[in-house]
Amino acid sequence: MRVTVIGTGYVGTVTGVCLSYLGHHVTCIDVDAEKIGRLQRGDIPIYEPGLAELLRLAASRGGIDFSTEFKTAIAASDVVFIAVGTPSLPSGEANLSYLESAARSIGASMDASRRRVVVNKSTVPVGSGNLVEALIREGVREHNSDFPGAIRFSVASNPEFLREGSAIADSLYPERIVLGAEDDETLGILRELYRPLIEQRFDPPPFSKRPAGLASVTLIETSLTSAETIKYSANAFLAMKIGFANEIANICERVGADATQVMTGIGLDSRIGPKFLNAGIGWGGSCFGKDVLSLLHTASEYGYQARLLEATLAVNRAQRQLMIQKLQEKLFILKGRTIALLGLSFKPETDDLRDAPSLQIAERLLQMGARVSAYDPIAMEACKLQHPELKIQYCASALEAVRGAHAVVLITEWAEFRNLDLAEVAARAARPILIDGRNFFSPEAACKAGLDYSGIGRAALKAVPAPLPG
Ligand SMILES: NC(=O)c1ccc[n+]([C@@H]2O[C@H](COP(=O)([O-])OP(=O)(O)OC[C@H]3O[C@@H](n4cnc5c(N)ncnc54)[C@H](O)[C@@H]3O)[C@@H](O)[C@H]2O)c1
Question: Which residue has the CA at smallest separation from atom 21 of ligand 1?
Answer without folding.
Answer: 9
